[in-house]
Amino acid sequence: MATIKAIDGRSVHQIQSGQVIVDLNSVVKELVENSLDAGATSIEVRFKNNGLDCIEVQDNGKGIAPHDFATVALKHHTSKLSSYDDLTSLETFGFRGEALSSLCALSKFHILTARAEDGAVGKRLDFEPSGALKGTAVVASPKGTTVYVEELFHNLPVRRKELEKNIKREYGKVIGLLHAYACISVGVRFAVSNQMPKGKKMTVFSTKSNTTTKENIVNVFGTKALLGLLKLDLHLELEPTSGSSTQNARKWATHGSDGSKTVQVQGHISKPIFGEGRQATDRQLFFVNSRPCFLPQVSKAINEVYKSFNVTQSPFIFANLVMDTNAYDVNVSPDKRTILLHDQTALLESMKASLTELFDKTDHTVPQSQL
Ligand code: ADP
Ligand code: MG
């Protein structure tokens, strides 16, 4: 008898889903991005038991049309991309059509949705683990979509145990991610809450539909966060260096919409005299073209420059790198948070020089009122 056999479809779906939804962070990231893609101006994220029991994301976006109910959670079904060519001109966060189908396979999952034209009448959608629509029911629902993810990883005992063991750290990471979305999303109200078993519902933080990132930062971190903040507005002109891959450099130079190789670093940073008296990396937010992402090398470079002016403290950083979409690749990891910058060496060098110049020009005396 043959010992090599095909894995059944259900197991394949579960294994692949586990690569898209790897932790609490990926659940929240996918759902918040779906809400932003749906044009929401208000997003509420409600955790129960730090997310172990339930994660709910409610938005006031455009809702899901009845003719899409059957396919909304099917794998590789998306309203945002129809061919590979569309990838280069993508303006939405999502494009793979994998998040909802993966959540069906890994949690107890359902959706409530209503469009503006449906009045206050919405639908509850229930799904099979495969993502196929199991049933619908009429419910009262305001315009928008609420996604419920209960008992994440309930059918993967090892993952579930791991999640339970690390829940404090995972929950902390998720709140950090939500800080990033809330600060960068101008015009979108965020409200984040958590309810522990038998406890009261606690507001974690909330923002209003502010018109500036600065107002968002005040809502998230308090007015004290603004103390001594310096506007970041660096214009970097990049020359490829020996450290950068010439192949990638060429790709960028020839494919860039205007052939330019400029990067702008926009946002806010603490003046060197006003850093935080601890390793405050929870107050360092990085974005590429407004997408929250991990940029460990950029973070290291900024912290290094800062340390050369203030050895004892760490800065608050809100840095959005605005650059040609051919200058990086977001498609390297399923969570799209790991970004490959093609000309990283040149970028880091230029950024360090420019930041040093900014700090050199900054008034380093502590105002009397702050002493
Ligand atoms: P993707 O975002 O890559 O398209 P998802 O699995 O995250 O894939 O979502 C599948 C589809 O479901 C989306 O393309 C969109 O049409 C619809 N959808 C998901 N979430 C929402 C939402 N909050 N509001 C409206 N439509 C949504
Ligand atoms: Mg999505």
UniProtKB/TrEMBL annotation:
This is DNA mismatch repair protein PMS1. It comes from the Eukaryota. Residues 217-360 form the DNA mismatch repair protein S5 domain. The lineage of its organism: Eukaryota, Fungi, Dikarya, Ascomycota, Pezizomycotina. Signal peptide: none annotated. Keywords: DNA damage. Residues 241-262 are annotated as: Disordered. GO terms for cellular component: MutLalpha complex. The chain holds residues 1 to 371 of 1075 of the full protein. Belongs to the DNA mismatch repair MutL/HexB family. GO terms for molecular function: ATP binding; ATP hydrolysis activity; ATP-dependent DNA damage sensor activity; mismatched DNA binding. GO terms for biological process: meiotic mismatch repair.
